[in-house]
Structure formats: structure tokens, C-alpha cells
Amino acid sequence: MSAVNWDEVKQRARERRRAAGLPMLSDAEKSAAMERLATEIRREQDLARCDAGTAVGVSGPRTSTIKRG
Predict the structure, then answer these.
(1) CA–CA separation, 45 vs 54, rounded Å?
(2) Of 27, 30, 52, 29, nearest to 41 (Cα)?
(3) What distance in Å separates the CA atoms of residue 9 and residue 11, rounded to the nearest whole number?
(4) How far apart, in whole angstroms, are the C-alpha atoms of residue 57 and residue 48?
(5) What would the pLDDT profile of 20-53 be if each residue is shown by its tens digit?
(6) Does the global pTM surpass 0.90?
(7) Taking the mean position of all CA atoms in its chain, how far away is CA 65?
(8) Which of 12, 22, 26, 59 could form a disulfide linkage to 17, CB 3.0–4.6 angstroms apart?
């Protein structure tokens, strides 16, 4: 079995989604969905953004940088 690079894995996943008739999201749509999910999780757990970053080992300023993209 040969190794498969990440781009090929993503391409195969897109092809399977398309073949299954599932919606195809743009990168911007995916980012927005992930941001909504992260916000929802933080609110459910009553965490500030910096608290959430600390929980995964990221500093407050780095959390802000990641958030801005």
C-alpha cells in the first residue's frame, strides 16, 4: 500500500461528497461554520476565548491570531 498525500485525500473526499449528492462548501463557508461551532462550544462551557486557548495549550494572543486567520 502506497502513501497518499493530504491533497489526494481531500480530493477523494470531495469526489465522494459530490457523488453522494451532498452539498459542497467553499473554504469561506467551512471557516464560518467552524467559527460558529467553536463559539457555541465556548458559550456552552462558559469559556472566554483565552480560556479555550489555554485549555488546548495556546496563549491568549496566539488564540486571537488564529481567530483572525
Answers:
(1) 14
(2) 52
(3) 5
(4) 14
(5) 999 888 888 888 888 888 888 888 888 777 677 7
(6) no
(7) 15
(8) 22
